[in-house]
Amino acid sequence: MNIVLGVSGGIAAYKAVMVARLLAEEGHDVHIVPTEDALHFVGKPTWEAISRHPVTTSVHENVAEVRHVALGQQADLVIVAPATANTLAKMATGIADNLLGTTLLATQAPVLVAPAMHTQMWLHPATQANMATLRSRGVQVIGPDKGRLTGADSGPGRMSEPAEIVQRAIELLAAREAHGDLAGVRIVVSAGGTREPIDPVRYIGNRSSGRQGGALAQAAAARGATVTVLAANVEDAVLAEIADLPAVDIEQVGTAADLQEAVQRHADSADVIVMAAAVADYRVESVHDTKLRKEEASGPVLSLELVENPDILRGLVAARRPGQIIVGFAAETASDEDALLELGRSKLARKGVDLLAVNAVGWTQGFESTENTLYVLAAGGELVATASGTKREAADGLLDAIAGLPGRQKL
Ligand code: CTP
Predict the structure, then answer these.
(1) For 44, 165, 191, 377, which has the most beta carbons within 10 A of its beta carbon?
(2) Cα 207 to Cα 404: distance, rounded to the nearest angstrom
(3) Considering the entire predicted model, what is its pTM?
């Protein structure tokens, strides 16, 4: 495979030599594109010897080959390791004042970045905002690890180990090779349940574990999609199952308002949005700054004033761009299947989604279980699939229905 390794100017550049070497040993053709700054740390002869290709930093060299776009166009994968705060900022804004910048703009290949910088620089809101932008565009991120940095300090900011970067690169290439039926499709999945604070220690929440949303993320990634999971208080065990998947990015959210902000931010770049999260319909109007105490209450009854949350799903449907698929979930308590589907159909009509996955819940049904049955209703109200089994099997059934929607050339 053809891999471009971008190297920006940080001390971790010396570790990138090992990344290049390991990739070459795996039989890949590695083109190295350092920034000018990177050459202060490791010189051109090293990069040329390791990659067996000429190494340039500027768009003004090898102009006849149109190298500034050719490298990116021909790449199967672009890695930036180390990715400094400056290079990440340039990537986020699309600045292309060197060969690495033009390569990154010209490529259609997956991009993997391995940030490396001092802890304060990593935690700075500017860097974090840039990372959020890059993630929302599907850029894969590995690290940074916590540990010893240059000098005496330590904390998050250390570049991931070369072997881990190479491992992730190989997984990304394998996913690209596998070409599942959702290859290249960008899916946003909300999972879990929102929590609306009452005071600093209490909240109004629900029993959703995030298992079904997690299973959807896993299944979609296995079928080639790039997945962003907006995780609302998802159980740790569920997060652990998806945390290391190269095609899955996780963003944690707390309240309905957080989820709305996050999903709207990701909506533009999503081909499919699946709202599997249980969203609180109401929030406490005025959240107490300090813990509510019994002695401050007016008597044996406590009243909380609740106000309605925005309907996120309806907002997404209203702002939907052509070709975008929006899928809702409905967890309902119903006496039998007919009643369940009836509730589902009326919700479908209210929400205006392309598909609604309806499942039955109750005191002893739905939430903690590893099994599920999803009745999938299409926009006209017809039952197009009954996906049941493990939550992963149910997820695949729903994805089959999504992939089978008529007129979706891209899926
Ligand atoms: N949903 C949403 N925003 C809300 C509430 C729900 O986006 N404020 C989404 C959920 O993620 C789910 C779908 O809408 O995909 C249905 O959620 P549900 O709570 O069943 O719908 P409600 O409109 O709240 O209906 P109900 O009256 O049954 O509570």
Answers:
(1) 191
(2) 31
(3) 0.62
